[in-house]
């Protein structure tokens, strides 16, 4: 590989990593691994024309039965660690995922909830009680 190809790979790696980091939460300690993975993938593409294999293990897509069982009235069962959560957003962020990435990774439908039904109902009742969603509702609740 000559000097021009090396510069191009560095520029491509920088561009890809910058784009990824600007749109995805990533802990600082995982940044070197991301850079190495992207650089290695680009290097493999430039030398053999094939993508390098991913270092993450392949994840099995959830079956319809598993999806139904993961949604209970009081909790959502995470496909990452199998633990129950009232809301998955913070849990997913800790694992470097967002709701869209989580759904795609496990083959979940686009309408898969991120909060359990009882928690959603509780929050809805609270919002209605303080007048959210009705014109002047907050002012009327204060009076």
Automatic annotation (TrEMBL):
BP terms from Gene Ontology: regulation of DNA-templated transcription
Pfam families per the UniProt record, alphabetical = ROS_MUCR
Going by the entry's taxonomy, the superkingdom of the source organism is recorded as: Bacteria
The family database entries (InterPro entries) matched by this protein are listed as: ROS/MUCR_sf, ROS_MUCR
Record GO terms (molecular function): DNA binding; zinc ion binding
Q: Which family, according to UniProt?
A: Belongs to the ros/MucR family.
Name of this chain's protein: MucR family transcriptional regulator
